[in-house]
TrEMBL record:
<dbReference type="GO" id="GO:0035493">
    <property type="term" value="P:SNARE complex assembly"/>
</dbReference>
<dbReference type="InterPro" id="IPR036412">
    <property type="entry name" value="HAD-like_sf"/>
</dbReference>
<dbReference type="GO" id="GO:0000149">
    <property type="term" value="F:SNARE binding"/>
</dbReference>
<dbReference type="InterPro" id="IPR023214">
    <property type="entry name" value="HAD_sf"/>
</dbReference>
<dbReference type="GO" id="GO:0005768">
    <property type="term" value="C:endosome"/>
</dbReference>
<dbReference type="GO" id="GO:0000323">
    <property type="term" value="C:lytic vacuole"/>
</dbReference>
<protein>
    <submittedName>
        <fullName>Uncharacterized protein</fullName>
    </submittedName>
</protein>
Length: 272
């Protein structure tokens, strides 16, 4: 019997936090130029630094753009345009964002009059421009986790990428950083539907009957969504403890029987 691995990308294969934070900062300046007038490099560096801490809350890339503005407004209350931010000011600490992001996000989207699709388009456009103008720097702002490149190259299992990243960016990074080409039909990127639906599609494919199914993800919330679907009971679920998750989430995952908390070295061994 063979093995099938469905792998998340950001936080499992690639540490893209440096690139996504810089892209989000560029996008935020395009979206809200007035707010960033006079913002100095010290503040920008502070925002990028904090983005590494709040990264576990991000499900889809465009949320990084919202987080950049939220961090800016938390750092410089004088520029707050939004009345609601005074009401939820205690949620504006980094800890507050980690705890309350699912509640904060819809409030700020409404308050700032933002649309999800517009922000996705903007974030993708900013990345495309960076990629076209300075490919080497864009690639260099990402890194693969140690051992992952070899594990992908020599994988004996059937590997699929299931990510909320736009497929073209995942493909470019796999080629450039891992030296691996994964056929486009095996990369399920942003726009291919929720991950639970992708997993259902994968398990139904005739060529996958009889394979042992594994799903590796770094977001606990995503794994919990899989557990809610009885149809997906045959998937083995793993939380990558090297990815974008908190100690609290890792402890919670360890207490859930369906979820195996996975070390990076064991992940690389499993793929091979």
């Amino acid at each position: 019997m063979g093995e099938l691995y469905a792998l998340d990308f950001d936080g499992v294969i690639c540490d893209s936090c440096g690139e996504s934070s810089l892209s989000a900062l560029k996008a935020a300046k395009v979206r809200w130029p007035g707010l960033f007038d006079g913002v100095d490099s010290t503040t920008e560096n502070w925002i990028i630094d904090q983005m590494h801490t709040v990264r576990p809350v991000v499900e889809t890339g465009y949320e990084n753009v919202l987080l950049v503005r939220l961090l800016l407004e938390s750092r410089t209350p004088t520029i707050r345009k939004s009345s609601f931010l005074c009401q939820v000011a205690e949620g504006l600490t980094v800890e507050g964002i980690l705890e309350n992001w699912s509640k904060l996000k819809p409030i700020i989207m409404e308050e700032w009059d933002e649309k999800r699709d517009d922000l996705i388009d903007l974030f993708g456009k900013v990345r495309d421009e960076w990629l076209e103008q300075d490919f080497a720097t864009w690639i260099g702002a990402n890194r693969l986790y140690p051992g992952v490149s070899d594990a992908l190259k020599f994988a004996s299992s059937r590997v699929y990428i299931v990510t909320t990243k736009q497929s073209r960016f995942a493909d470019a990074l796999l080629r450039e950083l891992a030296g691996v080409t994964i056929p486009p039909e095996r990369i399920y990127g942003l726009g291919t539907g929720p991950k639970v639906e992708v997993l259902k599609q994968l398990q139904k494919k005739p060529e996958h009957q009889g394979l042992t199914l594994h799903f590796v993800e770094d977001r606990l919330a995503t794994l919990k969504n899989v557990i809610k679907e009885p149809e997906l009971d045959q998937w083995n679920l793993y939380l990558g403890n090297w990815g974008y998750n908190t100690q609290k989430e890792r402890e919670e995952a360890a207490a859930i029987p369906r979820i195996h908390v996975l070390e990076l070295s064991n992940f690389s061994k499993k793929l091979k």
